[in-house]
Write a structure and sequence with these properties.
The complex is a heterodimer of chains A (318) and B (269). Chain A is an alpha/beta fold and 318 residues long. Chain A has 11 helices and 12 strands. Helix content of chain A is 33%, strand content 24%. With 269 residues, chain B is mainly alpha-helical. The chains are: A alpha/beta (318), B mainly alpha (269).
Chain lengths: 318, 269
Amino acid sequence: MRRTGTPGHDLPAVAVHGLGKQYGGRAILDGVDLEIGRGETYALLGPNGAGKSTTIEILEGFRTSGAGTVEVLGHDPAKAGRAWRSRIGIVPQTTAEFGPYTPQELLAHHRRFAPNPRGVDEVLDLVGLTAQARIRAPKLSGGQQRRLDVALGIIGGPELVFLDEPTTGFDPEARRQFWSMLEGLTATGTTILLTTHYLDEAERLADRVGVLSGGRIVAEAPPAELGGIEQRTPIVRWREDGRVLERRTERPGELIARLVAAADGEPDGLEVIRPSLEDVYLGLIGAFRTGDAEEAEDAEDPAGSAAPIGTASQEAGA
Amino acid sequence: MSAIAIGFARIGFELRGYFRRPDTVFFTFLFPLLMLGIFGAAFSSLGEVGAKPDGTGGVSMAAYYLPGLVAAGVFLSGVQNLAIDIAQEKHDGTLKRLGGTALPPASYFIGKIGLTLVTAILQAALTIAFGVAVFGIALPSDPGAWATFAWLFLLGIATMSLLGIALSALPRSGRSATAVVLPIVLVLQFISGVYLQFTMLPGWLQSIAGIFPLKWLAQGMRAVFLPEHFASAEPSGAWDLGLVALALGAWLAVGLAATLITFRWTKRS
């Protein structure tokens, strides 16, 4: 309702081209290209120090960019004003102090800052803090405080929400509750840019994931297709003459039947591995962290399935 | 909402938080009242001070301390409270969160200065009422004295608030905020005629105190609350209200400039 008639509605929510940033002569970001559509949930993955938070803080207008162009909701964040601020929501990586206020009081106060805020009760319900509405924030549990962070990030009715590692430190149940909450947010049409270390989280929530490594986006795809379809091809692994062998095949059953026939019995150490997003991700950042430029080229190339990608093949080689 | 309307909403929000923090209530809000109680009781046996040669016109020690402590209240509410409060907000992420919202910076400052104004008025009223009720201090009956009080008080709040905001840039961490601010605040109170009679101090210390605004605010408050003939006990033999206004005005400008130069929602890089 509040999102109809916004100028530039058909433009991407985030458009970044050739973004660079240096600290002390070292390039943290080195040509990041990133485009996020309206209503999309995009997960930015990458190891610690890859520049995820730097990227997000540049998009939030908290840091200046060193090179390239950055547009968030059609504006340069470094120069955008109050009206733009009211259209974005920020959930920072570390929870700030809330002061001696209740969630109800904080939300009622923060909603005054924006022209088209959400309702306090609606947001409390969305983040699951209705029962804690009148408890002072310092007395809430860590997970509840994190949900309050999210509540404060969305109370202004933003079109785009930045979530920087929102579920770090959560127990598995709290994480699943949090995911349901974010899905509720997505259902209202909000664009989300998420960073996370949890691959299952990215898989569950994101329409697309991007892997940031070495200051660039090295792979970008829907979670099920990251690294190329080939990377999800099952791997059959077995032992023969004391060596570990493995082969990628779309028809593992057929291969195993041949192995059984050849071995005239049960093959040694037989495994069928279906690479998960995590395997593909670790393969990608492994190739970029330890490898030279050529390896990097291979990993980006979907046809390069012969390259040593995935933990499975790394283990096999060890 | 306009920046001013949000600013007024912030005053209410800040006040609620202020009175929910026992340490600020004790060390800032009630401190002058407690000191008045302690000094008034401790020195009550001294009887009256500052009597004229004919034996009239003396005041109790409690009455003598009242103006300095009213000035100290404005100083504590402005400089001490805001410097510590904002330094902590800067380092605990509160300012960064606010900086990420559509809150106009002007509204934030309206909130802080409004907080100082309201708490300082309540504090002064409470301290004065305590002095009258417990120590029988006689208040000035001359409307002119109260007019002087009004402009001194408001100018004092404005100056001390801005100096507090400027000083909040000094602490390197939220935890060190109290350790950095308290000694400055305490030393200035001792050398500015709040706890010790100003003319008792050696000349060089008086000169140092004369650089800072608290000495002038305390002197102005003495002009309001003490009988006229006490002016002869001032270093220059007069209240020098013109100089008081000038000194406070100059520090107001310093505080404003320092605030505009140093204040950031968050470190930009």
